[in-house]
Design a protein that fits this description.
This protein is of the alpha/beta class and 243 residues long. The protein contains 10 helices and 9 strands. A hairpin with a 2-residue loop joins strand 1 (3-14) and strand 2. Keywords: ATP-binding, Nucleotide-binding, Transport.
Length: 243
């Protein structure tokens, strides 16, 4: 498979302390890759360095064979990004926001069809600020897909969705993967990670403590399920018991 994202010895420090330490990652075309870790483990810094919105202190990153820091304009056309804390104008409707997003790209998906797929087409005249948390989350995924990206970054993609809606989103993303879309996601829901991810990386204090498949993550731990294995890798379980 063709490598879409390649990270070599990525290091980023703040006040002399590494937020990400010599990280190595490879994400192949048409796969779903999950970056996991507790809050403060280095996930956001890793993604920002991969996207070129932050410059790494050391190491090399390529997306689609390009340097995200120097080739940002070229990459913009081919990379979709959805972040949990996305914020837009207060007084803009869903339809207007989709139209603004479409205007940024030369070639786009039909935004109304995407809204229908994610079951928020009835909200096209609503102000974005009036959407529920789950509706807003689905809209942000739609916006990330409008530009027909080759790779999309999704941050806590189903936060605020009920169980049925989460599973519907999983099904849609799996279908997009089958068509060749590469998806790089973060999630705190281990059932989501199990359902979607071909490979994962677990971070602890900026260091990769596991890289591989979900089944290998469980097999290489003392536990028989991903949630307990994840807590073991990150030592969250031990910390929680000591609180």
């Amino acid at each position: 498979m063709k490598e879409i994202i390649k990270v070599n010895r990525l290091t980023k420090c703040y006040a002399g302390r590494p937020a990400v330490n010599k990280l190595e990652l490879t994400v192949e075309r048409g796969t779903i890759f999950g970056l996991l870790g507790a809050n403060g483990a280095g996930k956001s810094t890793t993604i920002e360095c991969i996207l070129g919105t932050k410059k790494a202190d050391e190491g090399k990153v390529t997306i689609l064979g390009m340097n995200p820091y120097t080739d940002r304009k070229s990459l913009f056309e081919r990379v979709g990004v959805q972040f949990q804390e996305s914020s837009y104008q207060e007084k803009i409707t869903v339809r207007e926001l989709c139209e603004v997003t479409e205007s940024l790209y030369r070639e786009t998906e039909d935004s109304f069809e995407l809204l229908k797929k994610f079951k928020i087409d009835d909200k096209k005249k609503s102000l974005v600020k009036d959407l529920s948390g789950g509706e807003r989350q689905r809209l942000f995924i739609v916006l990330a897909l409008i530009g027909k990206p080759d790779v999309v970054f999704l941050d806590e993609l189903t936060t605020g969705l009920d169980a049925k809606a989460r599973r519907e989103v999983w099904k849609m993303l799996s279908a997009l993967k089958e068509k060749g879309l590469t998806i790089f996601l973060t999630s705190h829901f281990m059932d989501e990670v199990e359902a979607l991810c071909d490979k994962i990386c677990i971070l602890k204090k900026g260091n990769a403590v596991f890289k591989g498949t979900v089944s290998d993550a469980v097999k290489d731990s003392p536990f028989d399920n991903l949630e307990d294995a994840y807590l073991w890798y990150t030592e969250e379980e031990e910390k929680n018991e000591n609180i």
